[in-house]
Amino acid sequence: xxxxxxEYSAKQIAARIAQMGRQxxxxxxxxxxxxxxxxxxxxxxxxxxxxxxxxxxxxxxxRSEIRDINLGGHARREIFFSYEPELRGRDVLVVDxxxxxxxxxxxxxxxxxxxxxGSLRVAVLLDKPQDRKVDLNPEYFGFHAASNYLVGYxxxxxxxxxxxxxxxxxxxxxxxxxxxxxxxxGRKGAGRARGKK
Length: 197
Prior knowledge:
The chain is about 20% helix and about 35% strand. The chain has about 200 residues and is α/β, with parallel strands linked by helices. β2 (about 35-40), α2 and β3 (about 55-70) form a beta-alpha-beta unit. The chain is globular and about 50 Å long.
């Protein structure tokens, strides 16, 4: 897969989530929160964050799926969610692991707004504002992250591995080495790298 460099240690993550939990608890005071957790990558972050929130909380879990739809010969992509809770008049906190482009999360937020919640805020562990394609910013975030391939702490690597790492790390992929064959003339330094056609 490549070498993994620790970007945020388990200690750093725990300290930041404790701060987020205190801030959320202050902001909501004695109100009850409906926490909407986006699966799969947010399950570890959400579980740690919820345990740091001191106000009454109810958890809901949704999973997004992008499907290619063919309507009359015209193909388009649509986002579906496995479960949409009824949140009318509730104080809602949407929790995700990473906010990249924001397209999927923005779609979910708009769908949840249609149920007319009392309030709706977003919390993410890693925010990547440089990747944003929509006007969406989280009210709570753990770290501003660079556009790296990140794994660990719930984030999957190749084949779904690395979710159980206690830290968040960036992956530097290894490049396959290419053999250099000497030229037929046998002259030193006259070889040429040949790739498959």
